[in-house]
Amino acid sequence: xxxxxxxxxxxxxxxxxxxxxxxxxxxxxxxxxxxxxxxxxxxxxxxxxxxxxxxxxxxxxxxxxxxxxxxxxxxxxxxxxxxxxxxxxxxxxxxxxxxxxxxxxxxxxxxxxxxxxxxxxxxxxxxxxxxxxxxxxxxxxxxxxxxxxxxxxxxxxxxxxxxxxxxxxxxxxxxxxxxxxxxxxxxxxxxxxxxxxxxxxxxxxxxxxxxxxxxxxxxxxxxxxxxxxxxxxxxxxxxxxxxxxxxxxxxxxxxxxxxxxxxxxxxxxxxxxxxxxxxxxxxxxxxxxxxxxxxxxxxxxxxxxxxxxxxxxxxxxxxxxxxxxxxxxxxxxxxxxxxxxxxxxxxxxxxxxxxxxxxxxxxxxxxxxxxxxxxxxxxxxxxxxxxxxxxxxxxxxxxxxx
Length: 402
What we know:
By secondary structure, the chain is mainly α. 81% of the residues lie in helices and 0% in strands.
């Protein structure tokens, strides 16, 4: 084994031995997996009961947009709140209420009520998201944050893999409603795990004096860092592309792969599994060049998707796209953890994550309005090429001193 490989192995060992790290990571992974079930379960529930792709797209958007808009303010609140753990539990319980209300209303109440209650499900989500990201630095320390960020990327991808796959499996074997109810149950378990674990109260000793200062300083730090800003913009565009696939994958499954729409869960699992593999196989120090190349190649790989006409080949080709995404995804997470100032880390990460969620929700709504797989795939390609150009262009301007 090379010296670099030995160093990485030693770092992973040290990370696993770090106090609180394993229970913290497992709880966060379960929270993320349950949240990602809605990508498949919620959309399939609306489609199965109403057949309305536009309503499915708007509901998917409503499940993320309110939280993305509240993210900067709630992130600032997290940086100064005395009882962060309580805020996470409140968020998880509100999500349970929203999920059960969606099951009760879809197909049995006016269409507008479904995205309306999806707002309850999503609006406080930044309280959990921001806490999970910002606590990581305090759990692992500066010396292990790069290694922990690699695991963090894998945790997020594992949520994309297991959440939609589990929802698709439950929807196919039982019903989409059962999938959403199971998600509510898992979310309730997460609330209990957070409530009994004091590690979620950890935060930097450096704090902003109040929420207004945290909001101001966090936004300024993003704008002041060309690297964090350019990579953040590219990540937002990439999220827009994946948002299109919330409807694109079910349509692709039905019209290109000739299988049920619930198989879209397996396509999301392929993306996540590929990205996890790509994170480790294509491992390297995060840089603009690696991130830009990753976006370019993953976008181009989508041209292969329409060549598949059976589920197995579709899964393999979509998995290849996920594999090529690995360096961009893990690199973006690592750079955010490095560059976000400790005193306003919650605000910075929630703002950037919130912008991503706005893009996902916009993609979901656009995908529902278009309603055809091929145009969505071509849009996915174009969006990722633009993301690559933004990151590469910023790198070139940095070289030229512009």
